[in-house]
Amino acid sequence: MIILAIETSCDETAVALVQDGRKVITDQVFSQADLHAVYGGVVPEIASRSHVEVISRLADRAVETSGLKKQDIDAVAVTYAPGLIGALLVGVNFAKAAAFALGVPLVPVHHIRGHIAANYLAFPELEPPFLCLAISGGNTLLVDVRGYTDMHVIGATRDDAAGECFDKAARVLGLPYPGGKPLDELSQSGNDAKYALPVGHLDGQPFEMSFSGLKTAVINTVHGAEQRGEPLDRASLAASFCRAVSESLVPRTIQAAHRLGYGKIAVAGGVAANSRLRRDFTQAAEKAGAQLYIPPLKLCGDNAAMIGSQAYYEFAAGVRGDTALNAFATREL
After folding, report:
1. Nearest-angstrom CA–CA distance, 90 and 84
2. Number of H helices, E strands in the chain
3. What's phi and psi for 297, nearest 5 deg?
4. What CA–CA distances, in Å, run from 207 to 112, 133, 155?
5. What is the pTM of this model?
6. Smallest Cα–Cα separation from 303: which of 43, 13, 3, 1?
7. Is the backbone peptide bond immediately before 82 cis, with ω within 30 degrees of 0?
8. DSSP per residue over 55-96, as a string?
């Protein structure tokens, strides 16, 4: 089954062709990072306009580079939630038109389900059940993946997402947008024990998380040093920050997998590209005797291939959209 997949939930326009949920035929991504860099973050209106400008050409390029014909497409999939509402609407309306024109079914896909499915593309042997930590700019969730379309959130952040915290920390440290990669690189030369940063805990809720205190602590540390005229070890603050995020996420994930009785742990989303997290998860999973799955960097960020992968299983479960399909800024998993 060949699925044409569309992803426009934030600041990447992406179109892919995926076969049977496991094989990427082509994955085209247009990044808007340069458009938003001057503002230090994503501007929703600029993101929406950019999607409108490039999505049609990107879809044509995807088909051309695949070596397939439009008649070979069996279904069209699209991210319908969650994300920036204007950006989502561009993808949803394009996908509806494409499905109608091609005479094929339309399959709506939840963005976080797509991130989880990125692991199916990277690891063809992976099958549910397993535990997945989904960490991105807008979401931080511990998900019990009982089946390909049967998922239950067992823990989440109560405030800021881990990815948002990364972006804010990078910004206050004077790093360019998007800040995840520059902050990761800066942290490599730092001492992760130099700055004492908080790790959020909620009494009686072992799988719930909080990152607002960590974000505030980093901002206050930087501003405090500036006001007192004291030198700031930016590399060590970045390293201490990465350590605090890891100490919040890794033990909880291992504990949750143990509680569920799962020997398979997956990590997904843009923050999964962080080298400290990848290293700590590898060590923790090995110590716990668990099998770890973390997709390659190109599948951690937003892409359409992951949407096409999850769409295959949604289609098999009978999920369909029609011309009345709408987009949603927030939506439960």
Report:
1. 10
2. 10, 10
3. -55, -40
4. 18, 11, 5
5. 0.95
6. 13
7. yes
8. HHHHHHHHHHHHT--GGG--EEEEEEESS-HHHHHHHHHHHH
Q: Which DSSP helix (H) or strand (E) runs through 142? A: strand 140-145
Among 173, 272, 252, 276, CA closest to 215: 173
Please, are residues 108 and 319 in contact by the beta-carbon 8 Å criterion?
yes
Which residue shows structure tokens 């896909």?
Answer: 109
Question: Quick one: 219 exposed, middle or buried, by C-beta within 10 A (0-12, 13-18, 19+)?
Answer: middle
Determine the Cα–Cα distance for residues 124 and 148; give it in Å rounded to an integer.
13
pLDDT in tens, the chain (333 residues): 999 999 999 999 999 999 999 999 999 999 998 899 888 889 999 999 999 999 999 999 999 999 999 999 999 999 999 999 999 999 999 999 999 999 999 999 999 999 999 999 999 999 999 999 999 888 999 999 999 999 999 999 999 999 999 999 999 999 998 889 999 999 999 999 999 999 988 888 999 999 999 999 999 999 999 999 999 999 999 999 999 999 999 999 999 999 999 999 999 999 999 999 999 999 999 999 999 999 999 999 999 999 999 999 999 999 999 999 999 999 999
- Residue 176 token pair: 């360019």
